[in-house]
Design goal:
single chain, alpha+beta, T-fold, eight-stranded antiparallel beta sheet, 32% helix, globular
Length: 263
């Protein structure tokens, strides 16, 4: 998928982790290793289908006119439908159509794929795990130390520094950050494509799952400074925004994540 993918399973106090190269730790249990292979195979399938760069991907075939979207796979139709739903909810601030007939659903597919991968883990009986792809995270249960997962928000002006810790409280949560400090200006405002988003540099969204967090983090960042208000007014979401001056603004319920009991 063009980004690091990390999966960690911590059930039974055994740390079973792997990265996209399938280099499993020596103490990984067979059932965990088998499930991880299934997870990474799933991510490869998603990449082969939705990559906007690979010549033979299904998405590229749609973009070049070789495939009519009406004849696309069920997964492609699902993503297109979810993208249209998101466009309507965000009043156009999320739009996968770059130009007429050319699409890039990356702003939704990553979170959607991570969420689906987490459901695979849950269906195999795992209750404590962590999935990270390009910084978007789905965490559930507890880590190898028996503590709820803690997720750090980077300082966009000094990525080696953590400015805030999100405590999941052991519940299933998705955390997504949109910003320009690592990949440059890769997010645009679909309502004014010529404009450059300069007033904010980072916006982190916490949601019930990474699919919800990811799609709305992308849209909210495209809104610029008012994006934090959109997150504030969207049920189930909390956010933490950092502007160009380094000033942070958070939603009214974000404190609950920052101050959770970590026992």
């Amino acid at each position: 998928m063009g980004m690091p993918i990390i999966v960690e399973i911590t059930d039974d106090s055994a740390e079973n982790s792997a990265q996209e190269n399938n280099s499993f730790e020596k103490n990984a249990k067979p059932e965990a290793e088998k499930t991880m292979e299934e997870i990474f195979n799933y991510f490869r399938e998603v990449d082969e289908k939705f990559s906007p760069f690979k010549k033979n991907s299904e998405l590229m075939k749609i973009n070049t006119g070789a495939l009519n979207p009406e004849n696309a796979s069920a997964e492609m139709k699902e993503v297109f439908a979810l993208s249209e739903e998101t466009r309507q909810i965000t009043k156009g601030y999320f739009n996968i159509e770059l130009i007429k007939g050319v699409y890039d659903p990356s702003g939704l597919v990553k979170g959607w794929a991570i969420w689906n991968a987490s459901k695979i883990l849950a269906s195999r009986g795992f209750k404590n795990f962590y999935i990270s792809a390009g910084g978007d995270i789905q965490a559930q249960g507890r880590n190898s130390a028996g503590k709820p997962w803690n997720i750090g928000i980077k300082n966009p002006f000094n990525p080696k520094e953590i400015v805030k810790i999100i405590c999941t409280g052991g519940k299933s949560r998705g955390i997504a950050t949109s910003g320009t400090y690592e990949q440059g200006q890769h997010i645009y405002n679909p309502l004014n494509r010529a404009s450059i988003i300069k007033d904010i540099v980072s916006l982190t969204v916490v949601g019930p799952n990474i699919y919800e967090a990811d799609r709305f983090a992308t849209a909210a960042f495209a809104m610029g400074g008012k994006g934090i208000n959109f997150i504030e007014n969207t049920a189930g979401l909390e956010g933490y925004m950092i502007d160009k001056n380094g000033t942070a603004t958070q939603t009214s319920g974000f404190t609950a994540y920052a101050n959770r009991d970590n026992s």
